[in-house]
Amino acid sequence: MFKDFFNLLFPITCSHCGQNLASNEDIICAYCLFQLPQTQYWLEAENKVAKKLWGRVRVEHCSSFLHFIKDGMVQHLLHQLKYKNGKEIGQKLGKIYATELKKVDALKSIDYIVPVPLFKGKEKKRGYNQSQMIAEGISDVLLKPVDNSHLIKKQQTSSQTNLNRWNRWQNQQEKFEINDSDFFQNKHILIVDDVITTGATIESCISLLNQIPNCTVSAVFIASAL
Ligand SMILES: [Zn+2]
Question: For position 187, which CATH number holds?
Fold first, then answer.
């Protein structure tokens, strides 16, 4: 009752359209949820995101939930997730995606959900790692633990704009490390990130995990801009 009264005074609004949320809605209104441009990539093994990584790393399952369209609603939501303290948006999108991922056979065997790490300084400045928020949402639905202490980012990546693809890859490659690789041995890891564009970041994370004996890797993204 207190919550209802509170809502009356300070209505909670949809993170995308700004309309007041009904009592059975949270973070994003039903109308906006319905409008999300879903890829359905998780239903096909040979999807666009998986193909992006072909010949680069070994992955079991790889997919994105939404299409990233410039100036579209996904960009708006992800921008808030990253820069406007939109932790709940990350958790919410993670949860919705996970209800779909739950039906994917290849993901039934996952042991840990691992967010792509941020440089510690960046995480401190922002207050949180957006991929961690998405991973937590996925974890709530898949009921698998999040591990954020074994795949780590070493130092801030220097500006990459002047580097070609190979140098960019090398530059990224040097920025992640795995402490205690035994931890991931004989495990199926689900790596989580907000967006995939060139695939350079995820490639460097996965290529490290690919070196660990009997470590299976899958990767999911909230959005793909391919
Ligand atoms: Zn809305």
Answer: 3.40.50
Going from the Cα of 26 to the center of ligand 1, the distance in angstroms, rounded, reads: 10
Which pair of structure tokens corresponds to residue 211? 């070196």
For 59-111, write each residue's pLDDT tens digit. 999 999 999 999 999 999 999 998 887 889 999 999 999 999 999 999 999 99
What's the gap in Å between 128 CA and the centre of ligand 1? 24
Domain extent, residue 21, equals 1-35
- Cα 116 to ligand 1 centroid, rounded to whole Å: 28
Kindly give the distance from the C-alpha atom of residue 31 to the centroid of ligand 1, in angstroms, as a whole number.
6
pTM listed for this prediction: 0.88
> pLDDT tens digits, residue range 7-45?
666 678 999 999 999 989 999 999 999 999 999 999 999
Residues 6+ positions from 182 with CB-CB distance below 8 Å:
none
Cα distances from 120 to residues 71, 75, 195, in angstroms, run 29, 24, 20
**3 shares its domain with 82:** no
